[in-house]
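TASK: fixed-backbone design
INPUT:
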């Protein structure tokens, strides 16, 4: 058995203007700077379904990191996305992503150790050109048998009875701890999913562990989880309200499903009940997009 693993990478594709120290994006182009000749469909679909998406324009001194295992048919991958904020030609903020991945499940710890110890924790850089079929090689090291969750505050988090753990923002935490908590808290046969230093994520109830970037982020994430309560109807309703503003989209959905809605103030409860009926049929962002076409 080889002691080496291949760690591939690719980044958000953009048209770039400027220099490595001062650049702007003038448009998106798919993917760039990839060590893969083709991005695995399981990973592409996870990105399309916004499983790695963080709040647009979050500005922090440290990047946001999403660690996820993804699997489709016989395509299992461990993927870590590093998100940083950048600007477009109009001065608007956006999140740009650099993805690191290795084939198979259970590889997030190795990617993380490589990222933190072997390289200089690279973030999105459109000028850092990578070549196809030339992945990074990482020699798996025998890790010291050290319990990184030995502190009392982290032991307490292990035993907290909640599907998604929100680590208090003022608790000093590093990605290795978030990853370890995610691995230990996940249910059997479930895929690992954790987030570090994020202002917000799509579908927070899909993560085992989230470390918020600020107090405000913690409040928003906790409120979002309180509203969903992980039931099927709440899940669909959360997706429905997350992506939809009242107006044309609402009208299209209600008309399609034959639901009459009076938009007067006295009929807000009727709208809510109608939304619940729709939400039970819409459990993903893709199904919502199909519904309004």
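OUTPUT:
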């Amino acid at each position: 058995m080889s002691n080496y693993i291949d760690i591939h990478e690719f980044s958000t594709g953009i048209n770039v203007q400027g220099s490595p120290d001062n650049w702007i994006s003038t448009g998106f182009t798919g993917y760039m700077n990839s060590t893969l000749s083709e991005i695995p469909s399981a990973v592409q679909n996870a990105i399309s379904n916004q499983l790695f998406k963080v709040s647009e324009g979050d500005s922090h001194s440290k990047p946001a990191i999403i660690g996820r295992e993804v699997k489709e048919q016989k395509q299992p991958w461990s993927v870590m996305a590093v998100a940083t904020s950048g600007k477009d030609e109009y001065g608007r903020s956006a999140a740009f992503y650099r993805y690191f991945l290795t084939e198979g499940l259970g590889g997030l710890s190795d990617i993380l150790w490589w990222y933190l110890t072997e390289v200089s924790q690279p973030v999105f850089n459109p000028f850092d050109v990578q070549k196809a079929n030339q992945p990074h090689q990482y020699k798996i090291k025998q890790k010291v048998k050290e319990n990184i969750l030995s502190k009392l505050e982290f032991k307490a988090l292990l035993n907290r009875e909640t599907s998604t753990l929100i680590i208090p923002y003022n608790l000093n935490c590093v990605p290795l701890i978030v990853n370890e908590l995610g691995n230990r808290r996940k249910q059997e046969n479930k895929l690992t999913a954790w987030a570090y230093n994020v202002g917000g994520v799509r579908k927070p109830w899909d993560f085992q562990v989230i470390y918020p970037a600020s107090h405000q982020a913690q409040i928003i994430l906790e409120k979002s989880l309180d509203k969903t309560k992980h039931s099927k109807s709440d899940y669909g309703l959360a997706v429905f309200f997350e992506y939809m503003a009242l107006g044309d989209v609402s009208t299209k959905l209600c008309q399609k499903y034959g639901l009459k809605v009076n938009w007067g103030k006295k009929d807000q409860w009727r709208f809510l009940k109608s939304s619940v009926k729709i939400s039970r049929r819409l459990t993903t962002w893709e199904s919502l997009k199909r519904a309004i076409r």
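COMMENT: The mean pLDDT is 83.
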